[in-house]
């Protein structure tokens, strides 16, 4: 058995060496296709990460939004007093009120490439909370006019110590610390104290009360008590909040369809390639059968050729995608996840094998007597 396996492996390798040009072309085509699959996959993950990396990395399980927000945190609006009422009913000392608002700021300290920079305000209470940002440079705010900004904002020309102004509501603040690269709705995050968050909306400036978006807790949705549910609120798991971020669902679906299409193209290419090659080798298969080679051995030979071609293509494409992840500038939303690349590689090899099944019929249909008769 081992001997037969070795024979089919040797035949497969010798055939590839014999027709290096043919197999080289198919390897290059499949490598390019798989590179596009991996690139699209990493780009999709990168964009998804930019859409809501802050919410994704936070351990908070449940978001309590205003009624009718349909799981969209941007649509949720409640007064800070109502948020306090929810907190009191919830009874979780680790829960807190979260404010999230999209806006744009102008750099008063230095000129930037764009006149204004799109940002997302996050209002998180001082002290230890599960969503506290990780400081990488500078210090934490000590007053209401000081803020933290995620490192992504450096790509927009804003640096530590810069003075910023939100012209929409005519409020100013200074960046005193930079946090690790986290984003929301594709924008860098500016973390404010609750008292400064009041000034980021006209409503807050007029009334002195903040419009906040959610109460967040590490409790699961099932653990939320009836007292909270009676307050006319929407209760959602974190995954629902992330899924409902504007544009994320449509973007993810588009990338998934594109990746599926490229896998289908790969299967079609490898199926057609081996079908044509096997048709060209009908006489060779007939002679091998006449000299005692079985259909099973010849089938194994072709399957091993497909495996070799697929594995070589995957190794080359993974090498290229690793180089790409190193060379691409940080501004490109490219997120390399080894688990996804490994899963994609295994899927490609399996799809390549499935795509080659049609070509295996040509081996079984070869009649050695007919071939031998045609050679005389």
TrEMBL record:
Keyword Aminoacyl-tRNA synthetase: no
Pfam families: FtsX
Residue ranges of every copy of the ABC3 transporter permease C-terminal domain listed in the record: 257-368
Keywords: Cell membrane, Membrane, Transmembrane, Transmembrane helix, Transport
Main location: membrane
GO cellular component: plasma membrane
Domain of life: Bacteria
Transmembrane segments: 21-47, 255-277, 306-328, 340-360
Claim: Plastid is one of the keywords in the record: no
Membrane disposition: Multi-pass membrane protein
Record localization: Cell membrane
Subunit and interaction comment: The complex is composed of two ATP-binding proteins (HrtA), two transmembrane proteins (HrtB) and a solute-binding protein.
Family matches, as PANTHER family: ABC TRANSPORTER, MEMBRANE PROTEIN (PTHR43738), HEMIN TRANSPORT SYSTEM PERMEASE PROTEIN HRTB-RELATED (PTHR43738:SF1)
Protein's job: Part of the ABC transporter complex hrt involved in hemin import. Responsible for the translocation of the substrate across the membrane.
Family in the record: Belongs to the ABC-4 integral membrane protein family. HrtB subfamily.
Protein name: Putative hemin transport system permease protein HrtB
Taxonomic source organism: Fundicoccus ignavus
Organism lineage string: Bacteria, Bacillati, Bacillota, Bacilli, Lactobacillales
């Amino acid at each position: 058995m081992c001997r037969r396996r070795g024979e089919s492996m040797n035949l497969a390798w010798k055939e590839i060496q014999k027709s290096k040009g043919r197999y080289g072309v198919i390897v290059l085509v499949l490598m390019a296709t798989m590179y596009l699959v991996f690139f699209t996959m990493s780009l999709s993950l990168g964009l998804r990460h930019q859409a809501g990396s802050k919410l994704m990395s936070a351990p908070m399980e449940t978001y309590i939004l205003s009624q009718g927000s349909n799981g969209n945190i941007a649509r949720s609006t409640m007064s800070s007093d109502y948020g306090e009422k929810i907190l009191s009913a919830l009874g979780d000392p680790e829960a807190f009120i979260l404010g999230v608002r999209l806006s744009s700021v102008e750099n008063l300290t230095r000129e930037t490439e764009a006149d204004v920079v799109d940002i997302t305000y996050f209002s998180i209470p001082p002290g230890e909370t599960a969503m506290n940002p990780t400081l990488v440079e500078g210090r934490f705010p000590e007053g209401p006019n000081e803020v933290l900004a995620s490192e992504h904002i450096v790509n927009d020309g804003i640096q530590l110590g810069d003075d910023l102004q939100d012209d929409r509501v005519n409020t100013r603040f200074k960046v005193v610390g930079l946090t690790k690269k986290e984003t929301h709705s594709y924008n860098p995050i500016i973390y404010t104290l609750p008292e400064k968050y009041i000034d980021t909306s006209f409503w807050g400036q007029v009334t002195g009360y903040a419009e906040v978006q959610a109460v967040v807790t590490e409790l699961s949705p099932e653990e939320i008590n009836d007292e909270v549910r009676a307050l006319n609120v929407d209760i959602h798991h974190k995954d629902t909040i992330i899924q409902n971020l504007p544009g994320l669902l449509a973007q993810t679906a588009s990338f998934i369809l594109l990746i599926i299409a490229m896998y289908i193209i790969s299967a079609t290419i490898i199926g057609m390639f081996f079908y044509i090659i096997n048709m060209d080798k009908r006489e060779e298969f007939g002679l091998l059968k006449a000299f005692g080679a079985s259909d099973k051995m010849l089938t194994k030979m072709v399957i091993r050729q497909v495996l070799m071609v697929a594995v070589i293509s995957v190794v080359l494409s993974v090498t290229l995608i690793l180089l790409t992840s190193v060379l691409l500038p940080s501004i490109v939303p490219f997120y390399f996840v080894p688990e996804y690349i490994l899963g994609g590689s295994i899927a490609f090899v399996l799809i390549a094998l499935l795509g080659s099944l049609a070509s295996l019929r040509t081996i079984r249909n070869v009649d050695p007597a007919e071939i031998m008769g045609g050679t005389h």
